[in-house]
Glycosyltransferase, family I (Desulfonema magnum), 410 residues
Amino acid sequence: MKPGNVLIILENSWVPIDRRVWYEATTLRDAGWKVTVICPAARGAHAGTESPEYNIIAKHKMLDGISVYFFPLIFAEKGTKAYIVEYLKAFISITGLSWKVWRKERFDILHVCNPPDIFFPIALFYRFLGSKFVFDHHDLFPEMIRWRFRGIKGKLLYLLARVTEYFTFSSSNAVITTNESYKQIGTERNHIRPDRIFVVRNGPKIREFVPVKKNPDLKKGFPFVACYVGVMGEEDGVFGLVDVIRYIVQEKGRRDILFLLVGDGSERMKVLNALSEKGLSAFVDMPGTIRDDFLLRSYMSVADVFLSPEPWTPLNALSTFIKNGEYMAIGKPIVAYDLKETRYTAQEAAVYVPSGDIQQFAQAISDMMDHPEKREQMGRVGSQRISEFLGWEHQKQNLLRAYQTALKGK
């Protein structure tokens, strides 16, 4: 079937900073689809890291031939009330903007990314009007709820999230998911036929996400750099790196490693304050979110080791983190907690430590710094895995197959 019009809905991030969604949008554009995206306006960036391109004023912009509608949203960090307010405002904004897009130019496919799993009523409405629905399964929403809320309230919210997850899956003509573990959730927990679920992994573009010439100024005079790049939320494990850094600096007496922590989120200020209280600020650089792609890769290219400190949680255990594919594309080894899908992604490109073992994580970082040949060999393994299997160029065909299945589906 010929390409037509598609509307992509994204609630918990924005384009083009959400690399997976932007890859999907540009791939569909290149395949002949007319693509529109609805997403929140970008959060404020830290000084020195924001490009004027992302200083969103208008509610609508054309970015690389893709029509993008932005809506204002304050992202919740903690508390049931805050999440209810965020999701309610997002639902209202997305409903209104989707109708505006429909009236302007009807879309053949509505492509909804989670979390949260609350937009199935919108999908059902447009299915009634003749559109098809593709569900882009980024995160396990019920597991995320289980981790963030405790007690009786947490159990009730988890059950509600399971219901919304089921209706989201059941409303879809086709499902895109990030790994086989998530596909199993779709088939076994939500009873979707396997031929309607397509695994599209979080891989960077092979020819675009590459290392750049090292800028020694970014190392701030340190011989070695250990680098984290990503969101700094509660489940991302960044706060746990404070104890890792303290052990390396104060217990092992190593003062030759700069810890470069790139990103933003609810834990960033907590990490900064804790580092200051423990007298570790001199060994850490936290530049915030870096939106310029070349500058981001410049920071990553000075790293000797990358960090994947996500602890075991019901969500993390089965998730594929975008950062690990990008780490491997830069060609450097990873120190990670031992999670099923992290191990599948990185394989021999990472050193795996039992989840939550601060001392072993710290020791692994220290050992890697002392073995340059091992770092180089592991980096080559990671680069090869990206180029031969995980890179976006290998993943995009399943995206296009999902669209063909959706168009033909009943």
